[in-house]
Amino acid sequence: MSTSSLRRQMKNIVHNYSEAEIKVREATSNDPWGPSSSLMSEIADLTYNVVAFSEIMSMIWKRLNDHGKNWRHVYKAMTLMEYLIKTGSERVSQQCKENMYAVQTLKDFQYVDRDWQGPGRERARESQAAGGPAAR
């Protein structure tokens, strides 16, 4: 088990995160690989539960507000959000419409890392050009 995984598990216990929150934290971690499709599918299924939906979206909005060394939280949260809009509860797209300003602010997100800077801003621009993340 890696140090980052161990640290994440300790935070999950200390903060008493729910199953849904833990899954979102794992999907949007700082690990250098993207979230697995099976994990995103599990999270999408959980969006049909009212309590889990609230926990999932709360954690996604929190991750979207990260910055600096946690830039992967932002990028992976955008990836997860896009997946949930397509496969999760209709409430996901409704909440994204209501919080469009949070996504629009990411158009100017800057981080000095040539592997992410372009794709991250491009994903935010695509989202806005398509009518926002709620556009299906």
Structure summary:
The protein is mainly alpha-helical and 136 residues long. 66% of the residues lie in helices and 0% in strands. The longest helix has 17 residues, at 71-87.
List keywords for this structure.
single chain, 136 residues, mainly alpha, Serine Threonine Protein Phosphatase 5, Tetratricopeptide repeat, 8 helices
What does this structure look like?
The protein has 136 residues and is mainly alpha-helical. The chain has a domain at 3-96: Serine Threonine Protein Phosphatase 5, Tetratricopeptide repeat. 66% of the residues lie in helices and 0% in strands. The protein contains eight helices and no strands. It has helices spanning 3-14, 19-27, 37-46, 50-64, 71-87, 90-98, 100-104, 117-129. α2 runs antiparallel to α3. It is globular.
Strand and helix map with partners:
Elements lengths: L2 H12 L4 H9 L9 H10 L3 H15 L6 H17 L2 H9 L1 H5 L12 H13 L7
Overall geometry comes to globular
Q: Tell me how many strands there are.
A: 0
* The first-level CATH class name of the domain at 3-96: Mainly Alpha
Q: Any idea of the CATH topology of the domain at 3-96?
A: Serine Threonine Protein Phosphatase 5, Tetratricopeptide repeat
Helix content range of the residues, please?
55-70%
